[in-house]
Amino acid sequence: MTDTDVVLEVRDLAKSYPVRRGVVFKREVGTVRAVDGVSLTLRRGKTLGLVGESGSGKSTLAKLLVGVEKPTRGQILVDGVDVSELGRADRRRLRSTLQMVFQDPYTSLNPRMSVGEIVGEAYAIHPDVTPPGGRDKAVRELLDRVGLNPDHVNRYPHQFSGGQRQRIGIARALAVRPRILICDEPVSALDVSIQGQVVNLLEELQDDLGLSYLFIAHDLSVVRHIADEVAVMYLGRIVEAGGDAEVYDRTSHPYTRALMSAVPVPDPTRREDRAIVLEGDMPSPSDPPSGCHFHTRCWLAPTVADPSSGETRPDGARIPSVCRHDSPKLAPQESPDHLAACHFALDAPRR
Amino acid sequence: MSDPSVSALIAEETEGGAPQRSFWSDAFRTLRRRPTVIAAAVIALFFLFMATFPWVFTDKDPQRCDIADSRIPPQWFGGEHPFGTNVHGCDVLAELVYGSRPSLLLAFLVVGASVLIGIVLGTLSGYYLGIVDAVISRTVEVFLVVPLLLAALLLLSLFRTVDLGDGLLATIIQPAIVLTMFGWMGYTRYVRASVLETKNLDYVTAARVLGASDARIMFRHVLPNAIGTVTALVPTAIAAVIGTEAVLAFLGIGVRPPAVSWGIMITEGSEWFTGGSQYLLLFPLGCLLATVLAFVVLGDNLRDALDPKLR
User: Fold this and answer.
1) What is the percent of chain B where pLDDT is above 90?
2) Of A20 and A140, which is predicted with more confidence?
3) Which residue does chain A place closest to B203, by CA atoms?
4) For every residue of chain A, which 3-state class applies, written as one string?
5) pLDDT of residue A52 exceeding 90
6) Per-residue pLDDT at B5 exceeds 90
7) What residue segments make up the domains of chain B, in order of their start?
8) Do A200 and B224 touch (CB under 8 A)?
9) What is the pLDDT of residue A1?
10) pLDDT at residue B150 greater than cutoff 50
11) What are phi and psi of A99, to 5 degrees?
């Protein structure tokens, strides 16, 4: 894509962790593929929602993007420049392009530092980004910006509520005036009433500052509210991606459909619609299933299987042989920007 | 904020928040309410004051002894020798007062140096892991398997002929070095464990995402949060060193005469315990027990007060 609007592009990104056994001589007995060939595109001023169960590799992807972990394969391009080729000074500058908002507001703030120190730390690390008015003034403005009382700069994190702490975390990320914000489940740990406030704050900041968000969540309704585009992850891979209308209304992947049916619907008369229940847990990423990673839990595969197919999975259901042996590629669906990785994707919406 | 009702709500919530309180002031509050802590603190401070300003408590010189005054029993506050004299005719009160100096100074030196070493090595080993951790952790294990008393006996008797002079520091420097050599491992392990726990917290990752240097992360983020558990060990460790000093003096390899320490007084006094002068043993032993007990109680309570799970 040569689009100049693309601020962040990820190409075939992978991260695997070796599994070692033994005390003295550590043998490598396998690898955990936390992220396994992920490609994403984030456009200026837009929000890309990344959805998946726990353990699907969402948080690892976030850590790769902010440079806390090194990828084993693949590229991260910020404004078209490959991050891994940057020198020390440029990498430092990258810190002020890409920032992160954390999930747990109780562990993401240093309990021994005052709010002023937490938010102002960015200016101590990067003296060059300190605004002309000085550090204290900048911190007060940031607190005001995120809806906190600027007079509370000397208070400590434990004196704030969860929602307020999350606002402090957002202020800290905004201090270096980033253009891209990686939000790793920023509202999952908050009460529902507070979630709305924080999501609204994020949307407001996006409009005012032209930020681009990679919004990681497992709550589909929050993602639908904030995201322009959605990507669904399963076992380290993207299984479906596209505009939010496409993914939500013309769902092509059986996994996405199952996730959607798990969203609580505040309407008792529609209780019967919640038909899809996935059995079991997500398989271990150290030993992923062959072929399509999802075939062990797929509700669609048994319904499309040829009765004469000899392939059965552990629960006894017959599945198409292609699901077991071929890994499906992300393929365009009805619209070219809507991608899904399923051999029988087109069948899904009709069911 | 564009939504006035929301900002009003937030403002209200913060206004009604808890009063300003830090981790340490919380712990201090908890401690202040316990009578045993107050008693222990008074005793510990009393002996510390005595060691710092010995001339307030006695006008005699413990080294100026008159053999003619040998073994005068305690005359209490009426006589010239309130706590009596020892076999050489030295004033027991003066000895007790001046004898607290090497004991306490040694304890603070050893614990201070051990904690410092422990913090530095524990932080490095927990933060960098890998080869640094392997070297430090194995060294810790090597020192841990050597029994303290055996090592102290060996090293101190090897160097017992080395004369370093008469100063207060010179009399305790040898035991101080040996006790530090075999005292730093516990702190290293404690610090390493808390650093391991702390360094994976989100605020450390946040600092890394901001581009903070390793030194900044260690000193601003990891150490202040990892050090709490170690401070609780300090009073107990001070008590242990005071006790060990007495043992070494008793074995004749710690602080040596003519310098005076409680351990030396206990050694000398024990010879006359059955000879009718029990006070020569009981006075220094009482001081030693009171000090050790005070520091142990302080350490125990400090640990409780700093433990967030007991709050």
Assistant:
1) 25
2) A140
3) A108
4) CCCCCEEEEEEEEEEEEEEEECCCCCEEEEEEEEEEEEEEEEECCCEEEEECCCCCCHHHHHHHHCCCCCCCEEEEEECCEEHHHCCHHHHHHHHCCEEEECCCCCCCCCCCCCHHHHHHHHHHHCHHHCCCCCHHHHHHHHHHHCCCCHHHHHCCHHHCCHHHHHHHHHHHHHCCCCCEEEEECCCCCCCHHHHHHHHHHHHHHHHHHCCEEEEEECCHHHHHHHCCEEEEEECCEEEEEEEHHHHHHCCCCHHHHHHHHCCCCCCHHHHHHCCCCCCCCCCCCCCCCCCCCCCCCCCCHHHHCCCCCCCECCCCCECCHHHHHCCCCCEECCCCCCEECCCCHHHHHHC
5) no
6) no
7) 23-310
8) no
9) 45
10) yes
11) -130, 170
Q: pLDDT, tens digit, for every residue of B173-193?
A: 888 999 999 999 999 999 999
CB contact under 8 A, B210 and A92: no
In contact, B105 and B168? CB cutoff 8 Å: yes
Structure tokens at B64: 């100026």
**Model confidence over B59-116: pLDDT tens digits?**
777 777 777 777 777 777 767 777 777 777 788 888 888 888 888 899 999 999 999 9
CB-closest option in A111, A125, A152 to B210: A125
Same domain, A225 and A267: no
Whether B17 has a pLDDT exceeding 60, the answer reads no
Residue A24 lies in a domain: no
Question: For residue B310, what pLDDT is reported?
Answer: 55
CATH number for A193 = 3.40.50.300
The total number of structural domains that make up chain A:
2
Cα B265 from Cα B271, distance rounded (Å): 10
B225 vs A contacts (CB less than 8 Å): 110-112
Tell me which of 1.20.120.140, 3.30.450.40, 1.10.3720.10, 3.40.50.2000 is the CATH number of domain B23-310: 1.10.3720.10
pLDDT over 80 (residue A196): yes
Whether A296 and A220 map to the same domain: the answer is no
**Contact yes or no for A161 and B216 at CB 8 A:** no
pLDDT score of A49 more than 80:
yes
Q: Which residue of A has its CA nearest to B226?
A: A112
Burial B131-150 (b: 16+ CB within 10 A, else e): eebeebbeebeebeeeebee
